[in-house]
Specification:
By secondary structure, this protein is mainly alpha-helical. It is 77% helix and 0% strand.
Amino acid sequence: MSQSKPDIRAYLASHMREYGLLLALIAIMAFFQIMTDGVLLKSVNITNLFLQNSYIIIMALGMLVVIVAGHIDLSVGSVMGFVGALAAVMIVQWDLPMWVAVPICLVVGGMIGAAQGYWVAFWNIPPFIVTLAGMLVFRGMSLWLLEGQSVGPFPREFQALSTGFIPDFFPLSVGENIAERLGVRRFNTGALSLGVIAAAIIVWLGLRGRARDKAYGIEGEPIAFFIARNVIVASALIFVCYKLATFRGLPNVLISMTVLTVIYAFITEKTTIGRRMYAVGGNEKAANLSGIKTKRLTFLAFINMGVLAALAGLIFAARLNSATPKAGFAVELDVIAAVFIGGASMSGGVGKVMGAVVGAFIMGVMNNGMSLMGIGIDYQQIIKGLVLLAAVIFDVYNKNKQG
């Protein structure tokens, strides 16, 4: 026993970011659940949480890659608003079909990212300056494109990008029987089933990874932490899917976010290009000397950010059912804050996809909870600023402690 305690302490110290982030999210949700008299975790509000924060989470994935590579992008909110405006002009005013307009918008987003990435990667102009200029340029272009007015509404198939739901793949009678027994209006059996399957896959992957580490003699996390973490994550996933099942089921944006999160987690943690991105952010000169094409990776990081900002712009416009000149205003601050709160380092080379997603949810829950409590936007901004500052101080403190 005396030998295991120091090991547990050392493990906790080295993984404080992950466990601290998870505990922070649980604590914040518990606080707002109590303060809002249970409204926070009602089915309708959970659905709203996903719809309200989908575009933040999507852009946080791209911002994580940019920050891990040692850069930053201040233009994402303006790019998001501009692409939404472009979609509105093409679909509403020009009557272009959705299957033509959406790919064009994504390509435009990639081109914007490429233009900014070119100056950062190949001309060594600081990303702060390049993307600050981009923020001003595309904010102005949104105003010009929309002529200072809102454009809408969109056709239903475009609105489904954000407000649509996955239909139940079980017979209607099954859901009706369960709804009658539970005393609710409706029940989407498929939503709960997918939640249980996803929870089982997460646990299975965890067990598989633990067995692989053991086979190679790698010391993994203590068994108590492993069990507790998987129980919390699986239970939370099933609970959320149950709540969604009692409302309208799984939103389309939730599926999109999940797929993107899995893809980016795999790329950043399991592929060569992902490991090289971390190497670039950790020490660009050393990475360059080791044969890594650092300029190309920086260029690709900004292209990726542009495409995801464009996708977020489409989803945001679909949710509002119109494009407005003020769309995306100050959104970049929430996206950057989510990534830093999620454990990314200011100096690059550190950060995980799941951390960015959890960080985005922390910001989303705080926004939603404070709004439900009737806290004014002035105090909301102050509180969010203090939370971001605390996250950065925590990062610097951990670095100094380890160094």
